[in-house]
Each structure stands twice: as C-alpha cells, then as structure tokens.
Design brief:
With 450 residues, the protein is an alpha/beta fold. Helix content is 25%, strand content 21%. The chain has helices at residues 5-18, 55-63, 88-94, 114-121, 132-138, 140-148, 178-189, 198-204, 236-239, 272-275, 342-354, 367-375, 388-396; strands at residues 32-37, 40-46, 71-76, 99-104, 125-128, 152-159, 164-167, 193-197, 221-225, 246-250, 301-302, 308-309, 358-361, 381-386, 402-407, 416-418, 431-438, 441-447. A 9-stranded mixed sheet has the order 13-10-9-8-14-6-15-18-17, sandwiched between helices. It has a 5-stranded mixed sheet with strand order 2-1-3-4-5, sandwiched between helices. A hairpin with a 2-residue loop joins strand 1 (32-37) and strand 2. Helix 3 (88-94) runs parallel beside helix 4. The chain is globular, with a radius of gyration of 23 Å.
C-alpha cells in the first residue's frame, strides 16, 4: 500500500504524542503509538515513565478487540527481542493488527530490521520511513546514544543586542525575558542532564533545576566541570545533591591514592573504561569524523577566577556567567578555592560524597572522552548551559548537535562577556530549522543531521 496523507496525519500525531515523555523514559526512547481502525483512533499511548511498559503494548491494551484488522502507527520500529518484557512485535501479531506504519527504523542491533521482518513473516503489511525526518528529530537523543555512543548535545546561549552573554564579576545578568526563561525551563524538563563549568557554578551559584509548577520532579542531573574539586560545599548544587543528582567531573590528577588504586591514575588501571569513568566497554569514543577543530591538550590554561590548571588537564574552566533563570540571581557561594594539598583534597572529596555528590574522574575538558562516560550512565541528552568557555570547548570538539540561540534587545555594555557565537558565525554543518519569538526575545534553532 502506498503512503497516504492519512498516514502522514496519524504519524504526525504519534510523533507529537511521543514528545510527552521526553527525558523521562530512562535509557528507553519515548515512543508514540496510535491504533487506528476505519479512520478512528481506538488506542494511543506513549512509552511509560521509566521506560516500561512500551507504547505499543499500552495502545493495544486500550484498543482491545478493536485492534484486530487495524493499523498501528509507531514512531520507532517495534522491538523484536525479549528483555524485561516480551517483544512489541509479538504483541502486534497477537492482537491481529493488519498493518504497521513506522517512522524510524531502530538502530539497536538487537532490533534493527528484525521487528519489521517478524511482522512481515506473520503476514502483517509494514510501511517504514513515514515522516522519517520528523521522527528522527523526536528520537534524536536515543538515536545519538545508539549510533554515536554519546548523548545528544544541545548548546543554549542567550545573547544581548551587543553580543554579550553576561557581565564580568557580576554573577548572573538578566538577558532574556520571562517568556524565554519559561521555555528554557521546558527544555530542561525534557533533558537528561545539564552541564556548566566551575567558573559559572561559583560565580552564579545556580540551582539548575526545573521550577515550572508541576515539572519540578523532571529536573535534570546537574554536571559541573570541576578539575580540582573547587565547587563550594555551601553552593546550592551541593546542598541539594540528595534531592537532584550532581556529578562533578574532576581531573584524573585528583584521583584518590587509595589502597585499591595502588597509587596509579585511573587511565593506568585495569578496566579503566568501566571503573574510573563508568564507561561500559561496549561503548567507544565518538567517531573521529565528529571531532572538529583539535585543541592542544598540553597547552597551559587558567581561568578568570585565578585557578591555575596543570598543562595536561586541558582547557581552563569557564568563569563566565550565563543568562539567569527565575530563582538563580546572583548569590555567590562561600569558598570556591581549590584544595591546597592532598589532605585538603581528600577532605573535600569526602565532604562532597557525604553530601551526595558523585565525583567522576575523567578529563573535564575533553568532551570526546566525557560524553561516552555520561552515555553509559544512561544519559542520552545533555544541555550545555554554562558560559562562553564551556561552549567553545564543545563547539571546537565538533560535539554539539543543536544550538538554541536566544537574542534579546538588552544591552550589556562595559565589561561584557562576549558570546562564543552569534547568528552570523554558526559553524558549518548546521541547518537553521526554526525561528520563534518569546516576548521580545528571538530564538533561532540550528541542528546538525543525525
């Protein structure tokens, strides 16, 4: 059967439905499914919170006997392998569905093509690739983690009329208005993790949570690039770590010299990929084709807070503040200086752990190593929000997939912190996908192909 406008209409509805649980289905993708009989939707569902049950089984259960002879519209190829639950392809067969329309074929090697083959062997008509571009966009985080062994990375910047993202030494500066800030809250709610540099964490003392009423429980994991464990123990991030997880990414140089480590840095330990960085051995680094302009890992660096880093730690941390969200106005935490010696480092490490903070020993300024480590923790989407230097690190590595660029009429003036990019110098490979207005603020979105 050829694809009809009705097929596209129902698939578009399934894709919209799939977005309901973005960022809330653990390592499983958020999939939408509609069961349609004689042009009427008789069952619908999205992957349940936590990832199970899958969309197909829920939609079929809702449809019941009406599923026999119906058409199922699914945004991702139905699974064909036995996991914690039976395959969705078997459920579609058991309910007597006559036709299955799929937007995106699953790249998971346990599924890829097998689900379609199982359905066809059972005599079910299958059409795939319907609204595939839209479907891939809705599944971007899952597809990136499956095919590139890393999270899908969104870089969000709010830029003033004079090209600045903040003002030096003043903590957070309001650039966008309330409508745009509310939109950013929605973005956080559908993202697995949010990342800032240590300079931003100290200067702004942010919470980085979702504060939209009713969505507070969807706050992302908070990640700080903090090579020398300088995050103040009095910071909002540390004080709330038991409510919303916090990961501090520290340099290997501060790896504890404990008995089990035998005095060796983590990169020298057996099983380093699984033990020191949390990497599953089946996950490799991003392909070389993803990595753009190279950085010299041996270049010395220091940040504007006066923290000096040894030459093999990587680029300096980002001290520059980014535009604030509601509830994150200036409030510098006490402290912010790196530990002075090994004993102080051990004390700081123990205090962070006692507060519920996880310390990940993985070069903070090499995202090609960090991102696979985050992927093996179940993080499929990452929002980079933390200042100019942090943004440049990810841009120069060629590991940004989407750019959300807010442009506001506010003028920062003297001592402004220059944005790492603006609408005139978007890196090659990005396509402009949309322009939206939120009050007086303009949002331009750019994406790379998956």
């Amino acid at each position: 059967m050829s694809i009809t406008p009705h097929d596209e209409r129902f698939m578009a509805a399934a894709i919209r439905l799939s977005r309901w649980h973005l960022g809330r289905t653990a390592t499983n993708p958020s999939v939408g499914c509609l069961i349609v009989r004689d042009g009427v939707i008789v069952g619908r569902a999205v992957t349940a919170l936590g990832g199970r049950p899958h969309a197909e089984t829920q939609a079929l259960a809702e449809a019941g006997a009406h599923a026999r002879g119906a058409t199922a519209y699914v945004t991702l190829e139905p699974c064909s392998h036995h996991g914690r639950t039976p395959p969705c392809s078997e459920a579609l067969i058991a309910y007597g569905v006559a036709r299955v329309v799929i937007s995106v074929t699953d790249p998971d090697p346990r599924v890829s093509g097998r689900g379609i083959a199982m359905l066809r062997e059972a005599g079910i008509e299958v059409d795939a690739g319907v609204l595939e571009a839209e479907g891939r966009r809705s599944l971007a985080a899952y597809l990136t983690r499956q095919t590139k062994n890393r999270p899908y990375v969104t870089l969000k910047l709010a830029v003033s009329a004079d090209g600045m993202i903040g003002r030096k030494r003043e903590g957070q500066v309001a650039i966008t208005g309330p409508e745009a800030r509310a939109q950013v809250q929605a973005l956080r709610a559908e993202t697995d993790a949010i990342l800032v540099g240590i300079g931003t964490a100290i200067a702004d003392d942010p919470l980085l949570t979702v504060r939209t009423s009713g969505l507070e429980s969807q706050s992302p994991i908070r990640i700080v690039l903090d090579p020398l464990l300088a995050l103040p123990l009095t910071s909002k991030l540390v004080e709330t770590a038991r409510q919303v997880p916090v990961i501090v990414v520290a340099s290997e140089e501060v790896w504890p010299l404990s008995a089990d480590a035998e005095g060796l840095p983590p990169s020298a330990l057996p099983g380093y990929r699984g033990r020191a960085t949390g990497l599953d051995p089946s996950f490799g680094p991003p392909t070389r084709g993803e990595i753009g302009k190279a950085r010299d890992p041996n270049s010395p660096a220091s940040d504007e807070d006066g923290f000096a880093f040894r030459k093999d730690v990587g680029q300096g941390a980002n001290p520059d503040p980014i535009s604030p969200l509601v509830g994150e106005m200036p409030g510098r935490a006490e402290g912010g200086t790196p530990p002075a010696d090994a004993a102080d480092m051990d004390s700081r490490r123990a205090a962070l752990k006692a507060a519920g903070v996880e310390v990940l020993y993985c070069n903070p300024y090499h995202p090609e190593v960090l991102l696979p480590a985050l992927a093996t923790r179940g993080i499929s989407s990452l929002l980079v929000e933390g200042g100019a230097k942090t943004a440049r690190i990810f841009l120069e590595a060629g590991l940004v997939d989407r750019i959300q660029l807010y442009q506001a009429p506010v003028v920062i003036g003297e001592r402004g912190i220059e944005s790492p990019l603006d609408a005139t110098d978007i890196p090659s490979g990005f396509a402009h996908t949309s322009t939206l207005m939120f009050g007086e603020d303009r949002l331009d979105e750019y994406e790379r192909g998956l």
